[in-house]
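Notes, p. 3: input format for complexes.
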Amino acid sequence: QPLLQVNDLRAKILESGVEILHGVNLTVNEGEVHAIMGKNGSGKSTFAKVLVGHPDYEVTGGSVVFKGENLLEMEPEERSLAGLFMSFQSPVEIPGVSNDEFLVMAYNARRRKLGLPELGPLECFSYLMEKLQLVNMKPDFLNRNVNEGFSGGERKRNEILQLAVLGADLAILDEIDSGLDVDALRDVANAVNRIRAPKNSLMMITHYRRILDLLNPTHVHVMDKGKIARTGDISIVETIETEGYETVAALT
Ligand code: ADP
Ligand code: MG
Ligand code: MG
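Output follows (252 residues plus magnesium ion):
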């Protein structure tokens, strides 16, 4: 049984009623790394947000099965507790809630869901420190208010820290590499590689080859006009770079 099975998924923007996803098909098995590429506006972020249950969108057709369950019937929080991760950083800063408080709340909620006892304050602290080292971040990061004054690069690192702390069967990373300089990109990619477990899967949306070379996707998809137009291995990236997305999407 695949980890994630998406069949003919259609979704519209709730407010305007405009359909953005016109029948997406995708199968992700345990341990696979899927890259989703495609030009701006092709529906990549919408696809990711629909999977995690973002309230701006309404599913109008198709099905999504995650770990044998109907994902579309689950609340966003249930999806996350079930092991589907997408960064939950909000564009708004949350004054008064520190990053560590936020992470601990989310992690203990997931432990409850998994039937594990909650961690006490001291255990939480050492757990967070361990993960912080894994993603190579400074401890002062934890005391900051959630998203308050984070630079672009810090937000990306924080996203990886969230993933390291929570763990996930399937993590969706939407343009984790955008706006990072070469060194920061390598750090982020290394951190992702360190927190990966053999059975866990990754779906990453990106425009750039560099992060793909660091994360070794097993599958590369090209999204075009709300559908996955083409699927292959890393060699597709070469064709995209020389021929462009339009040509690659048309080559079916
Ligand atoms: P990508 O991530 O591939 O660049 P998006 O999924 O962000 O593409 O967007 C696909 C299309 O849907 C774009 O035309 C975008 O403007 C539109 N869109 C997506 N979400 C919304 C929204 N919440 N409100 C209005 N338009 C949206
Ligand atoms: Mg975009
Ligand atoms: Mg996008």
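The chain has nine helices and twelve strands.
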